[in-house]
């Protein structure tokens, strides 16, 4: 059942705010630090033994300006079938893709969810439930280094980004700062504490105009968002070549799924239809894009993270290439009686045709496009209180 209440939580650590980055700093001056040598196992099995914890403690971020608790505590995993679970840090954990990644990875791993702003809605709370939730700025290397060290992170999945093209147009400084320099801060923190495996999530926009872009196509500068991600790609490749770091980078086509807070085409059309409104079809927009369902993308990400032999760029491609009219009409198949409105729109400069192809691996989606659209609609209905 969908509810809008937040569980209260007791703040157990004191945080200040860095006046330059507005990110969390830990003040442990009046706290007893927890060391691995202090940890023992009691008869109930609820405390950690050595550097193993049988059940990771939960933490929660409270709405508003409150800070997360228990950043300073340490754990490294639990035993399952004789195997240690990995400790995985997911950045941008309350974003569209980040929340779906956390929801998948937490089933078999200990997940530390790094967020920048408030966790919103039932879906995000459910997805991040049972994970450590830490609020910090991705550009603050000192805090990132502390998180990596204290939680003994084995793998990092880096999804944090400013990803909306319109936002990038309005505020390019922030986009370059977060997408490029935030990646530098994270990779440097990982390098300094010798984190094992890192996945960086990039985009197809770096390849510019054209169909069937492969991993060896040179990056193309264009609008600020795509250019910031090209910068990110160069940074990743530099750290691989210079320091020999274990980094894999995914370039993915347009992702759709349960994404209630964005203005992208699939969520916009689904929400309009569920409200009984007619979605728009732009008569003067013939651009085509390639699409992937979020569950397929997460499966591809998980495969890349677990394949330790992969380095550098890998494209995630489905062959689902459609224009915006195709997308709208596909969604309308599930809404009998609703007809689209055809209008002419004032369109910004944009890429006309874009799709991917991979020459480095043979990944295929498990979902069909029609089933993925139906699944997306079901989830929008289930979590209607998040956006209705």
Q: How would you portray this structure in words?
A:
The protein is of the alpha/beta class and 388 residues long. The chain has a domain of 271 residues: NAD(P)-binding Rossmann-like Domain (Rossmann fold, 3-Layer(aba) Sandwich). It is built from eleven helices and 18 strands. β5, α1 and β6 form a beta-alpha-beta unit. α1 runs parallel beside α2 and α1 crosses α8. The longest helix is centred in the middle third of the chain and has 22 residues. It starts with 13 loop residues before the first strand and ends with a helix.
SSE arrangement:
Layout: E1 14-17, E2 24-27, E3 79-80, E4 83-84, E5 87-91, H1 96-105, E6 110-115, H2 121-128, E7 132-135, H3 141-150, E8 155-158, H4 165-170, H5 172-193, E9 197-203, E10 210-213, H6 224-243, E11 247-252, E12 254-256, H7 265-274, E13 280-282, E14 288-293, H8 294-306, E15 312-316, E16 320-323, H9 324-332, E17 341-343, E18 354-356, H10 369-382, H11 384-387
Parallel strand pairs: 5-6, 5-8, 6-7, 8-9, 9-11, 10-18, 11-15, 12-14, 13-17
Antiparallel strand pairs: 1-2, 3-4, 14-16
Helix pairs in contact: 1-2, 1-8, 3-5, 5-6, 7-9, 7-10
């Amino acid at each position: 059942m969908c509810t809008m209440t937040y569980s209260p939580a007791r703040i157990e650590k004191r945080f200040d705010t860095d006046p330059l980055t507005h990110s969390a700093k830990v003040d442990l001056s009046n706290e007893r630090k927890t060391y691995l040598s202090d940890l023992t196992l009691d008869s109930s099995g609820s405390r950690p033994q050595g550097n193993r914890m049988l059940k990771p403690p939960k933490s929660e971020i409270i709405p508003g300006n409150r800070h997360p608790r228990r950043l300073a505590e340490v754990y490294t995993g639990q035993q399952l079938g004789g195997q240690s679970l990995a400790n995985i840090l997911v950045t941008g954990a309350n974003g569209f893709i980040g929340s779906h990644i956390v929801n998948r990875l937490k089933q078999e791993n200990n997940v530390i969810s790094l967020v920048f702003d408030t966790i919103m809605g039932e879906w995000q709370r459910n997805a991040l439930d049972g994970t450590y939730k830490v609020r910090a700025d991705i550009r603050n290397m000192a805090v990132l280094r502390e998180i990596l060290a204290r939680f003994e992170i084995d793998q990092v999945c880096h999804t944090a980004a400013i990803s909306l093209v319109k936002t990038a147009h309005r505020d390019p400084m922030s986009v370059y700062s977060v997408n490029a320099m935030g990646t530098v801060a994270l990779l440097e923190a990982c390098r300094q504490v010798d984190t094992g495996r890192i996945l960086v999530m990039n985009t197809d926009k770096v390849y510019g105009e054209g169909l069937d872009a492969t991993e060896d196509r040179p990056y193309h500068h264009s609008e600020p968002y795509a250019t910031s991600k090209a910068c990110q790609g160069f940074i990743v490749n530099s750290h691989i070549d210079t320091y020999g770091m274990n980094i894999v980078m995914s370039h993915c086509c347009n992702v759709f799924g349960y994404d209630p807070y964005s203005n992208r085409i699939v969520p916009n059309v689904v929400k309009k239809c569920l409200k009984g409104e007619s979605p728009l079809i732009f008569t003067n927009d013939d651009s085509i894009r390639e699409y992937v369902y979020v569950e397929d993308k997460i499966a591809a990400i998980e495969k890349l993270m677990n394949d330790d032999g992969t380095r550098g760029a890998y494209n995630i491609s489905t062959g689902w290439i459609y224009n915006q009219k195709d997308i709208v009409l596909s969604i309308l198949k599930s809404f009998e009686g609703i007809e689209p409105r055809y209008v002419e729109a004032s369109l910004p400069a944009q890429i006309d045709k874009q799709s991917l192809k991979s020459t480095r691996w043979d990944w295929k989606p498990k979902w069909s496009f029609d089933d993925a659209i139906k699944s997306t609609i079901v989830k929008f209905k289930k979590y209607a209180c998040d956006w209705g």
